[in-house]
Amino acid sequence: MDITAAVLSAIGAQAPFTDSKPLAVERIRLDRPGPGEVLVRIKAAGLCHSDLSVINGNRPRPMPMALGHEAAGIVEEVGPHADGAGGEVLKPGDHVAFVFVPSCGHCEPCTEGRPALCEPGAAANGAGTLLSGARRLHRHDDEPVNHHLGVSGFADYATVSRRSLVKVEPELPLEEAALFGCAVLTGVGAVINTARMPAGSSAAVIGLGGVGLAALLGAVAAGARTIVAVDLSDDRLAFARELGATAAVNASDPEAAGQVRAATGGGVEYAFDFTGSVRALDLAYQITRRGGTTVTAGLPAPTATMPLAPVTLVAEERTLKGSYIGTAVPTRDIPRYIELYRRGLLPVDRLVTGTLALEDINEGFDRLHSGDAIRQVVVL
Q: What are residue 77's DSSP bridge partners?
């Protein structure tokens, strides 16, 4: 079948993207689902810095690629043997959120309850294929088009692995459901799953994009007594206060670390970095108190390195941890986070700063790049 999709043909485009136009909205062919796969009509897809990092070359991927990894939609067709984790079978008409790492259920991380680290899923994502190894996207000259993280959500339809989908209740608006598969899963999960932050803790969140603000909401929901928001934007800092931050520090201030330590009596027990900047990660480590934990979910360029005094890990019993997809079990966590949202404890809808048409996607990435938007959602 023919679909409309936003396709990236080369990495390394420079802003403004309305001039360089890295994403071309074009008609391409989509194969119907094979064994273990599902055809979904996409209704909403969020613009994320992980997409931007492919456009600008910080996260190299095989080209050409249909971008988009944070999405939600309605099941159109189910291929043979498309049972999900736990044996749940999807049917046409079901509402689903996409997850950007499919989990095979059989590799060592999956059997240990760590599907975010699925080894076949990571290999497929790096190769630009679905979990099966297949590519279901093609240009009309039969040139294969790669899948972005098994989703390729900037399109009106997608064929994906059943393991890339989590069923959601139809009462949840799909433009909000999309955020649960990336921003919410990653941000809230970093607080609850990776850090296992107990109620009454002190925390700092560095980088107030969609993922960072979701983490802030997660820290509020988890009962943190103190939450310091850190960012370069005073507008973002003011918004973080509205969402529950108890203090705000502009990271451009040379005394930013000292300000956080002064506001928290020597540093926070849990510091979270969501920037993809080594300088920001270093700041997160600086403001973590003795015995505390620093968690990073940012993705700097693969060549980036960080200076670290190992003695602090030992003498101060410090912990530095990475968090990928919020150390999530998506089939467990997405329904839980949606229920928190329903109860008013996780107001994810406040993170959506605008909607746009697929044809305006380059303009949307300009707004994301400049910091003028938190989470924009393409509505299809």
A: 39
